[in-house]
Amino acid sequence: MFEYFNPYRIFKINSTLQKIILFCFISVLSVGLVEALFLSPEDYLQKDSVRIMYVHVPAAWISLGIFSLIALLSVSVFLFKNKNFILITKSLAPSGMLFTLIALVTGSIWGKPTWGTWWAWDARITSMLILFILYVLYILTFRIFEDQDKSNKISSIIAIVGAINIPIIKFSVDWWNTLHQPASISLTEESAIHSSMLIPLIIMTAAFALFSSLIFLMKYNTELIKVKNKGLKRL
Amino acid sequence: MISDLISMNGYGAYVWSAFAFTLISFSSLYFIIKLQLEKEQKRFEENFSTLAEEKYNVAVNKEIYKEILKSSGAKI
Q: Measured between alpha carbons, how far is B31 from A25 in angstroms, rounded to an integer?
């Protein structure tokens, strides 16, 4: 199975995939922006401010998805001792951190016209801020500790312990009284959002997912070249 | 018509700033990662070209090294 995680194989596929994904990202994002900004209807209550949802929600979803993946792969690092998993998690982190920042900033911008405040120590917002801090700590670990084994262990622990925060973010709206509304979209139930708003939301989510894949591939190649640079010196 | 699109019933400043922040963040991260990748490729090329002949002969047969040099446009 681990043959599929062979660095040479991934590097070769990466170089080709990057151009295709960049093209798909620009195309899907263009369609998504037109839909989100001009074609989708305004909300009966929130009016045009609802359009912020099309960047805020996909960013939040993807930031959670990426951290869950990092946590899962970090468990695999401990179980299988496969160093390539560390390269993968390290390459996923920058886009995850950026999406968390986007979710926080756009959420703050959306909060002003909707709730009348830029910031509130609400359960969902606070747990998202914790997620951002976890991403920063995760990335900083590789810069702070020069000993690779030590940085790999500490970053994996941060990801695994930090994974506790994921269900807290997800269920914070059910467990506590928060300013956020309960989830409108569920995989098991029918969506509470009308298709005229759901379609742009799905398109923007696809665009954001493509962007995170692009950044992942570029970062993975960068990290792999770094490793091989050290390997050249040891030849 | 255009002013309506820009003002968005008074919510324009919020909507446009949220989208602008997102797009600027995307561009910034893309160019930062691209610069890092190019810097590493350049460093690899430099290290590869300064290898002693014996080491060069070992390195030149490794698939991954060939692929890295190919991706940066270097000739072996």
A: 15
